[in-house]
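User: Reviewer 2 asked us to show a designed sequence for the structure in our supplementary figure. I'm pasting the structure tokens here. Could you produce the per-position amino acids so we can include them in the response letter?
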């Protein structure tokens, strides 16, 4: 009999052992992120519940690649309790993604797999999905900041994602921070179309009280912004009571709160309407229940509580009132917070679903009662331009002397420098005379810079690349001047001078100077006066000069004659080796870079780089002895910038060591002497009164068929050289400007009649 009892006991123990097992139940097995932005990490959280009767232990969690990092609840999960498994994806690769997360636990002999999916996009223009809330031109991922379930001594952090959709550089700043909050923007400045975050830290030691603490912070939309309802962000923090010091007796006989409802449906309210609901609160525990704090998250709700202390079995009424007039004024979700001494339910949130009723505007002309109503046309919109503006006297611009120009330039005054460049670009003879003297006096201060020419086809990303190139070189110190040449219209002769708008970061840098100039009909992709402008910039202390050309194609070689290094920016798909070996701009380049090597275009860029390398092998070796290199990069994403500039610095070290740098500078000076002669001859010829009248007569003879174009040319030119006089400078009289003009003007006396 004893043996039978023993066997039965053993069988029962085995059965109980088989039955006592943990069981893992996930709230979901797949998380769909949708569309997320490039380099903006996202986290998926999976809730796991132990449905078994034995503690659930997660021993390890693995991910399918290094781009995903997992975290999980390390403590055993008791039966009926929940834990979490989170997976953070770094979003560094553009395109669709699907990653797996493997959970190793004692609830299964094999891993339990979860999945995360989505698509990473680099489009900086549409943030409605990732940043649904808007304050001015700034978009946010949330409209309120909540710190939930904080304990004394904790320093939890929250991240507020920010997207700049304005057309200017933006500095994220949270204003009116209370003492218990601190915030830091990462990065400190956001360019147009860029994203960042504000990291907000809560210091619970500085919270004024237990339970709910609310405040409002304000996000600056621009420099010098003020606070108001438009840029308000509500902040709430809940500090929980500490139950670590209660006695064993209190633990065994705790109070227990029970509510008749934890969510209220109040629907829509008019602006002058209010609505109230009552909730019954009962103590179903073994000791007194204390409602230590009762608060609302915003002014849209009001609360009334009859009793704060309830004995076991006692109950009380909580009246919650919603006010329609305050619903439009507040941000955030209407909620009520209750802090109790119930160790199992110290915090209770009562949600109140109520919204402000939208009132449609009534127009009497749309009413059936007034079918024959005629709506008169409104008044014409007045002009936005003040009609009296033309009557105002414009302040006369101060004119500097030659000495004042030189002094301001040498001191690094960019205002004086800008005016001097305008003087250089002027076509007025009196301006040219002053400009040439300023250039002459600035010449001893010039020549100490790195002159970089940047060219490429239109749309290659020259301006965008200069923005990131400039920031990179300025990290090492010094000053940078960018001379951006904009094409002039052959019809209107005007230029929009808009390249500066693409250099959003560089344009606000204190050590940079960006000067757009029109090409004004000059061939070769540069302006006529770019060479002179370089001298002025060098005299102003700019040790790095960028010359961005128009981008006209393979004949754009004039920039090579005024810079030390010629960088050619190309795109993938612009041709094969045959296109690359065509003479012109290709054989002038000291370095070739393939832009937009990102995303799905990386392989195309690498192929284009290979084509250009093959083409360069067919060119004769340059006089410098330098072998031009071909590299790939992405100006938009800032990939490969350092490598390009390492190559440029290597070039300068190479040509300075073999003496080619000084030789090249001398050759450029000689070249531009002859170019200046040609320009002055041309201008003096066409501005001479006798030549102008003679040209008109010969033009009429050509049009009437009395003279051929070639014979007319010979007669005019022959007359020119037969009667040429050069007037040398004199300093007679009191008109200094006239004397200066004589320095640089040629005077033609043409007396022949035919």
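Assistant: Here is a per-position design you can include in the supplement:
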């Amino acid at each position: 009999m004893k043996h039978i009892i023993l066997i039965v006991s053993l069988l029962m123990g085995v059965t109980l052992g088989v039955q006592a097992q943990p069981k893992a139940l996930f709230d979901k097995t797949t998380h769909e992120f949708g569309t997320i932005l490039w380099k903006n990490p996202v986290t998926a959280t999976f809730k796991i519940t132990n449905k078994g009767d034995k503690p659930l232990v997660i021993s390890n969690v693995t991910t399918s690649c290094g781009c995903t990092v997992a975290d999980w609840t390390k403590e055993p999960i008791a039966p009926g309790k929940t834990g979490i498994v989170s997976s953070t994806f770094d979003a560094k690769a553009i395109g669709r993604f699907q990653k797996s997360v493997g959970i190793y636990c004692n609830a299964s002999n094999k891993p339990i797999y979860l999945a995360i999916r989505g698509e990473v996009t680099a489009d900086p223009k549409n943030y409605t999905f990732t940043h649904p809330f808007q304050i001015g031109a700034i978009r946010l991922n949330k409209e309120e900041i909540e710190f939930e379930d904080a304990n004394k001594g904790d320093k939890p952090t929250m991240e507020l994602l920010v997207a700049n959709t304005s057309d200017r550089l933006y500095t994220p700043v949270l204003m009116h921070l209370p003492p218990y909050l601190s915030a830091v923007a990462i990065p400190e400045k956001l360019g147009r179309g860029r994203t960042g975050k504000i990291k907000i830290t809560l210091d619970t030691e500085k919270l004024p009280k237990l339970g709910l603490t609310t405040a409002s912070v304000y996000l600056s939309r621009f420099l010098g912004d003020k606070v108001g309802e438009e840029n308000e962000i509500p902040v709430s923090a809940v500090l929980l009571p500490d139950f670590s010091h209660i006695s064993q007796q209190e633990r065994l006989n705790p109070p227990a709160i029970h509510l008749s409802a934890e969510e209220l449906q109040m629907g829509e309210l008019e602006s002058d309407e209010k609505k109230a609901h009552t909730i019954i609160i009962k103590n179903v525990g073994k000791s007194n229940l204390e409602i230590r704090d009762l608060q609302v998250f915003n002014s849209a709700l009001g609360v009334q509580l009859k009793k704060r202390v309830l004995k076991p079995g006692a109950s009380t009424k909580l009246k919650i009132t919603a006010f329609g007039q305050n619903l439009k004024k507040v941000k955030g979700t209407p909620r009520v917070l209750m802090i109790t001494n119930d160790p199992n339910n110290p915090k209770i949130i009562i949600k109140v679903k109520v919204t402000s009723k939208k009132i449609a505007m009534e127009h009497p002309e749309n009413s059936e009662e007034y079918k024959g109503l005629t709506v008169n046309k409104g008044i014409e919109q007045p002009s936005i331009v003040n009609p009296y503006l033309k009557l105002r006297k414009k302040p006369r611009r101060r004119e500097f002397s030659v000495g004042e120009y030189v002094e301001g330039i040498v001191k690094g005054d960019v205002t004086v420098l800008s005016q001097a460049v305008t003087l250089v670009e002027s076509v007025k003879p009196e301006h040219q005379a002053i400009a040439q003297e300023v250039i002459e006096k600035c010449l001893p201060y010039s020549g100490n810079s790195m002159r970089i020419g940047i060219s490429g086809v239109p749309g290659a990303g020259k301006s965008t690349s200069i923005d990131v190139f400039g920031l990179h070189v300025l990290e090492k110190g010094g000053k940078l001047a960018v001379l951006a040449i904009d094409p002039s219209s052959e019809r209107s002769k005007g230029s929009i001078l808009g390249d500066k708008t693409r250099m959003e970061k560089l344009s606000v840098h204190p050590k940079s100077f960006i000067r757009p100039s029109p090409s004004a009909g000059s061939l070769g992709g540069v302006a006529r006066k770019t060479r002179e402008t370089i001298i002025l910039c060098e005299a102003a202390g700019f040790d790095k000069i960028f010359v961005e050309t128009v981008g006209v194609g393979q004949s754009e070689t004039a920039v090579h004659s005024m810079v030390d290094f010629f960088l050619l920016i190309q795109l993938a798909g612009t041709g094969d080796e045959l296109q690359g070996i065509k003479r012109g701009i290709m054989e002038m380049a000291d370095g070739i870079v393939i832009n937009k090597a990102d995303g799905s275009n990386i392989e195309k860029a690498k192929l284009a780089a290979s084509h250009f390398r093959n083409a360069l092998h067919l060119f004769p070796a340059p006089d410098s002895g330098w072998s031009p290199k071909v590299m790939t990069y992405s100006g938009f994403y800032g990939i490969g910038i350092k490598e390009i500039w390492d190559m440029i610095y290597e070039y300068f070290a190479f040509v300075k060591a073999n003496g080619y740098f000084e030789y090249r500078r001398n050759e450029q000076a000689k070249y531009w002497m002859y170019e200046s002669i040609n320009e002055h001859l041309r201008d003096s010829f066409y501005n001479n009164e006798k030549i102008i009248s003679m040209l008109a007569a010969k033009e009429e003879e050509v049009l009437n068929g009395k003279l051929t174009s070639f014979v007319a040319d010979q007669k005019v030119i022959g007359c020119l050289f037969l009667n040429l006089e050069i007037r040398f400078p004199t300093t007679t009289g009191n008109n200094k400007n006239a004397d200066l003009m004589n320095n640089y003007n040629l005077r033609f006396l043409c007396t022949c009649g035919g």
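For the response letter, you might also mention the following. The first strand starts at residue 24 and ends at 26. The radius of gyration is 39 Å.
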